[in-house]
Amino acid sequence: MAKPYQNAVSICVILSIIALFGILMGGFYHAPLITIILLLPTVIYEVYRTEGDTTKWASWALLGLFIAEFILIVLNINYDLAAFLQRSEGYVAGYTVPMGDVKLVGPALMAVLSIILFIRTGGVYTKWLAIIIFVSSFAVVYSLDASIFERYLKLAVDQILNNVNF
C-alpha cells in the first residue's frame, strides 16, 4: 500500500535543506560527522517510504551502513580494507566500489545503495530522497579525504551513465 504523500513534498524540501546545510558545514569545516548527523532524517524517511522487497532491503542496508559509518567516524577507526582484502576494488550489486580506508568505503556503499533505490523505485519522493543521500555520501567522502573524492565521483558518474537510459 502506498505511503501517504500529502506532506511528502514539504518533508522532502525540509530534508533537502537540512542535508544541504550538512553538506556545506561538513565541507567547510572538513567535519564529516556534521554531514552524517544531518543526513539521518533523510535516511530514516527513506526507510519509511520504501515498500518493494528490493527497495526495502536497500533502505534498511543503507540505515545499517549509516550507523556503521557514524560509529567509525565518532571512534576515529581507521582500517585499510584494500590491504586486508588484497584488492583495490570490490563489487556490490554490479557496481564498482573502491576499497581503502573503511571510513571511505561506507559512503561509497551508501552511494551505490542510493543508486539502487533511485533506479528500482517508482516513487518520486523515494527518488528525491535517494538523490539527497547520493549527494550527501559524496560530501562525506570529500570531507574525509578530498583527494579520493574525484576518483569516487568519476566511478559514480560512469555507473549512472551505464545504468540510466536517456
In a few lines, what is going on in this structure?
This protein has 166 residues and is mostly helical. It has helices at residues 8-29, 32-49, 53-74, 81-85, 102-120, 124-144, 146-163; strands spanning 89-92, 95-98.
N- and C-termini, Cα separation: 30 Å
CA gyration radius, whole angstroms: 15 Å
Number of domains: 1
| Strand order, sheet with most strands | 1-2
What is the tally of helical segments?
Answer: 7
Number of strands: 2
Major sheet attributes: 2 strands, antiparallel
Low-confidence parts lasting 5 or more residues at pLDDT below 50? Answer: none
User: In which range does the helix fraction lie?
Assistant: over 70%
Counting helices, strands and paired strands, the structural category is mainly alpha
How would you spell out the order of helices and strands?
HHHHEEHHH
Percent range for β-strand residues: under 5%
Gross morphology is globular
Give an overview of the whole structure.
This protein is mainly alpha-helical and 166 residues long. It has one domain. The protein is built from 7 helices and 2 strands; from the N terminus they run H-H-H-H-E-E-H-H-H. It has helices at residues 8-29, 32-49, 53-74, 81-85, 102-120, 124-144, 146-163; strands at 89-92, 95-98. It has a two-stranded antiparallel sheet with strand order 1-2. The longest helix is centred in the first third of the chain and has 22 residues, at 8-29. The mean pLDDT is 83.
Which features does this protein show?
166 residues; mainly alpha; two-stranded antiparallel sheet; 7 helices; 75% helix; globular
Write the layout of secondary structure elements.
Elements lengths: L7 H22 L2 H18 L3 H22 L6 H5 L3 E4 L2 E4 L3 H19 L3 H21 L1 H18 L3
Helix pairs in contact: 1-2, 1-6, 2-3, 2-6, 3-5, 5-6, 5-7, 6-7
